[in-house]
UniProtKB/TrEMBL annotation, chains A, B:
This is Threonine synthase. It comes from Lusitaniella coriacea LEGE 07157. Its EC number is 4.2.3.1. The modification N6-(pyridoxal phosphate)lysine is found at K122. Its cofactor is pyridoxal 5'-phosphate. Belongs to the threonine synthase family. Keywords: Lyase, Pyridoxal phosphate. Residues 86-388 form the Tryptophan synthase beta chain-like PALP domain. GO terms for biological process: isoleucine biosynthetic process; L-serine catabolic process; L-threonine catabolic process; threonine biosynthetic process. GO terms for molecular function: L-serine ammonia-lyase activity; threonine deaminase activity; threonine synthase activity.
Length: 434, 434
């Protein structure tokens, strides 16, 4: 989905050439590999930051496309032939009404509920993964998904003309299933939770020649989340915030925002400063929050039981990295109950006009808890990450919001209903004493 | 929802000061008025194009915010204190796979399915109407809606802290009702169709001091649709297309895109050239298409009966203006059946990764018909307008798309399902002869 008027691109020197193991620094070719054969540690893309530094400036980025591809030298693609579906550069909203409600003075909302094309931050990671998949010669792409990733993989594969087979847990929200099927991929609904889906996909990835965006393409895929760090820094006027609050599922998003900030410091685009990283989980699937609270150096897997299905990963791959990051930056990892999650969704909608899904409700609920516990300073520049759209998880709020007043198409019918509504509202605010 | 880093704005000379009747040029104060007391013709905003010409250039627009407000001198607001929720500047997609499927060489898709904040073009008109409502001193805003407008009015009112009461037909799609209620406005579900809702609202507008965005604020509101013309011209590199295809409900969107092009010509931002305007209606509510086909100079109202509820206006206010515009520009107004609308939704999703609602399905279905009838030249630069998101009208495609294959979390269960899927697909393409 190239923008109509693309800026002319000149081929530039690649900024990466290999993968390295996260712990031992063992090198691998930049192919569809994701785990070190010797240490079993995950593999990461190794960049040449001198090359990046020579290619980027604030001005060159600002003159780039209005999408994640303005940060292309920081992303693991070798050619200029990327899949640009307009992903990224979502609004960073200076909150007025939510901030006042919470008592914060400098609250910003990074709104990926309106990310393109499928309304979640997953469009970022999938745009990167499928661009790389095409470079590596894959013709069929796949993923293990809690819903948003399946939407995004199916949509962007359709756009790019790649064959697509996605795997989801069979109990997903209707909107997420339909929002995948519409693009006409093969959809495998697996009887089991996400962790079981993920294990099955690892097996399939070993025997089929497919590009699984979050398995054998994971080193490339996960880099896409750095753009949530890059954009916030740029949108704050090339400054880092004081505190961020983001949801934690696998822990990848949370740790890659940090990596994005660090890379901007490394190449001189922003000044170094401390940033506190706080994380949000649903209480019904909070292995990372539990490890953080207990001060443990390991994650105890859990069986998910929450309405926040999109972040319900019981055995999170990057869980310990997330705990360490919260500890070293002075942040907190907190959880919210399902009821609090619904209240979080409603609070954001009523105050800011942003309708988020359960993951966003979790993040807002945790933001509120952190403020109440004095863990966010009212003056801090705080950025809260909203990662998905509420139209996909309508079940979560059904029955928990108001109802329409049904009336006849006549003025007197309206007037009676309006009077009733006003009375109810007054009663809401000033309960009659009995 | 101000963008984090707003460009500093200097107050500029207002570009409008009054309303005039569309037929007789009778002048009115620029207040909440919408119909000429003498001729009953609609009122329009009267601009001083010399003032606009002095304020705008391609460069000044390109340096403006990444939203409809980059065109602020062309919009009817008096101050710089506008409500900017990031609306507009949605992608203009150069189509590859849909274009190939249809046999077109220069097809572009203007994608308002990802407009901010509520995923339809209505965010444009509501951003303008509520900005003006605030200037005129309204504290309660309202609308008569087929769904998208209610979503948008409720969300942007919530953001701006305005009280809100919206009116919808009681049989709307669940996603549109929930996508309004979440922002906590008062919702009146009227037993009747949109035309009845609209009549009731006219009565309410007369006796309550509310700003109805599409009734007493309609002269301001409708101007927001011009931005769909402005953006296409700018995104095509400051050129007009040869042919546009847009949905027709009231006819306002369709005629305002034309007005947008004309204004850009008038102030010298683009060169004058012929643009053909074709329009799309659902067969179950096609009073404008019927008038066009019969060559009538009046609209015969109809009772809507179609799945395309968002464009189901049986007595369209600007219907005759739309017919005249199609006639004078050499375009066509065509309709599509409900089955063709569903196929249109699927076609766009499968080829471009864009999930639109029924209105968009109508437009794609009509685009296909026009190509097949030889009414669009393969070489013409054609822009098709997609105005809303498919997640809001999930009912329309349920049962018409594929289903997930349910499997156990085991490799052999997957393998059996995958083999079955491949066989089915082969059968699909190469039916066995019996």
């Amino acid at each position: 989905m190239t923008q109509a008027i693309a800026t002319e691109k000149t081929p530039t020197k690649p900024t990466f050439s290999k993968l390295v193991s996260k712990d031992g620094g063992i090198e691998y070719e930049a192919k569809a590999l994701y785990v070190c054969e010797e240490t079993f540690s995950p593999l990461e893309v190794a960049y040449d930051y001198d090359v990046i530094r020579a290619q980027v400036s604030r001005e060159s980025i600002e003159a780039g496309p209005n999408s994640i591809w303005r940060y292309r030298p920081f992303l693991p693609v070798a050619t200029d032939n990327v899949i640009d579906v307009g992903t990224g550069m979502t609004p960073l909203v200076k909150s007025q009404r939510l901030a006042r409600r919470l008592g914060l003075k400098n609250l910003y909302i990074k709104n990926d509920a309106v990310n393109m094309p499928t309304l979640s931050f997953k469009d970022r990671v999938v745009s990167v993964a499928l661009s790389r998949a095409r470079e590596l010669g894959f013709t069929t792409v796949s993923c293990a998904s809690t819903g948003n990733l399946a939407n995004s993989t199916a949509a962007i594969a359709a756009h790019a003309g790649l064959d697509c087979c996605v795997f989801i847990p069979s109990d997903l929200e209707a909107g997420k299933v339909l929002g995948t099927l519409i693009y006409n991929p093969t959809v495998m609904a697996v009887k089991g939770n996400y962790d079981q889906v993920n294990r099955l996909c690892s097996e399939v990835a070993n025997s089929y020649g497919w590009g699984f965006v979050n398995i054998n393409l994971r080193p490339y895929y996960s880099e896409g989340s750095k753009t949530l760090g890059f954009e916030v820094a740029e949108q704050l006027g090339w400054k880092l915030p004081d505190h961020i609050v983001a949801p934690i599922a696998s822990g990848s998003l949370y740790t890659k925002i940090y990596k994005g900030f660090q890379e901007f410091i490394k190449v001189g685009l922003v000044e170094d400063k401390p940033v506190r990283f706080s994380g949000a989980q649903a209480e019904g699937c909070s292995p990372v929050a539990q490890a953080f609270k207990a001060g443990r150096d390991f994650i105890t897997p859990v069986k998910p039981n929450t309405i926040a299905k999109s972040i319900a990963i019981g055995n999170p791959a990057d869980g310990m990295y997330a705990v360490e990051q919260a500890q070293k930056t002075g942040g907190t990892i907190e959880s919210a109950t399902d009821a609090e999650i619904v209240e979080g969704i409603k609070l954001l909608a009523e105050t800011e006009g942003i309708f988020t899904e359960t993951a966003g409700g979790t993040t807002i609920a945790v933001l509120k808890k952190l403020v109440e516990a004095g863990k966010i300073d009212p003056d801090e520049t705080t950025v809260v990450y909203i990662t998905g759209n509420g139209l996909k998880t309508q079940e979560a709020v059904q029955g928990c919001i108001g109802e329409p007043l049904t009336i006849d198409a006549k003025l007197d019918s309206f007037e009676r209903a309006w009077e009733r509504a006003q009375t109810l509202e007054r009663l809401d605010w000033q309960p009659v004493l009995v």
